[in-house]
Amino acid sequence: MLIYAGIDEAGYGPMLGPLCVACTVFAVEPRESDAHPGAPDLWKRLNNVISKAGKSGSGTSSRRAAKGRILIDDSKKLKGPRDGRMHPLKHLERGVLSFLASITDRPQASPNSNGVAHSEHSEERVLPRTDAELMQWVGCNHTSHPWWQNDVELPLGATEGELRIDAARLAHSLQESGVTMHAICCEAIDAGSFNDQVDRMGTKAGVNWCSAMRLADEIMQRWGDHHPRI
């Protein structure tokens, strides 16, 4: 088995809400068909269910290319226009909630001290009911942030039934492809903490790097012994 994890960031603490550094963690069974040992191509393995958005996640060509698949891409490519016929966050929500519901062990409500939500086994395709519950599932303590004081009911851009179908299709594809979805986790750094850290480190890049290393350390601690080929 190989642990395959990706870390990225979005937001800018003082201006547009918290700086969020998020991570996804997969366990992957290596196959002879992989182009490079230790670097499986999840796009090819899950091609029947997921697709990149392309130049424009809300464009007609992207919808035709996807053929009903779940779009996964940079958030700027997935956001739709506010004056469109569908909710502008539909594609973002669909991808996040489908993968979150496909985690082998369903997250508990309370995260651990490092921000990663631990879990208990469940076969149900459970979806978070509010944005606050979503934040708890990914291990993000949002209670001190004023912009999270009012819970928003989920889902926003699709029905619960549609998302359960997406999650079931994705879970089946993951299983057939030898891929296990282990975790989705996020660290949110609010404006005050962001400014303090920039003062100490000198740059936003330093804040990003330290947050990413905290997540990487948590991954090593939780899965390193079980999957030594990290």
Q: Any overview of this molecule?
A:
The longest helix has 20 residues, at 204-223. The protein has 230 residues and is of the alpha+beta class. The chain has helices at 42-45, 60-66, 75-78, 90-101, 131-137, 160-176, 191-201, 204-223; strands spanning 2-10, 19-28, 50-51, 70-71, 105-111, 117-121, 179-189. Residues 55-62 and 107-123 have low confidence and may be disordered. It is globular and about 50 Å long. It is built from eight helices and seven strands; from the N terminus they run E-E-H-E-H-E-H-H-E-E-H-H-E-H-H. It has a three-stranded antiparallel sheet. A two-stranded parallel sheet has the order 3-4. Strands 5-6 form a two-stranded antiparallel ribbon.
Distance between the termini: 9 Å
Mean pLDDT rating: 80
Order of helices and strands: EEHEHEHHEEHHEHH
- Strand proportion: 15-25%
Helicity range: 25-40%
Assign the structural class, choosing from mainly alpha, mainly beta, alpha/beta, alpha+beta, or little secondary structure.
alpha+beta
Q: What is the spatial order of strands in the main beta sheet?
A: 1-2-7
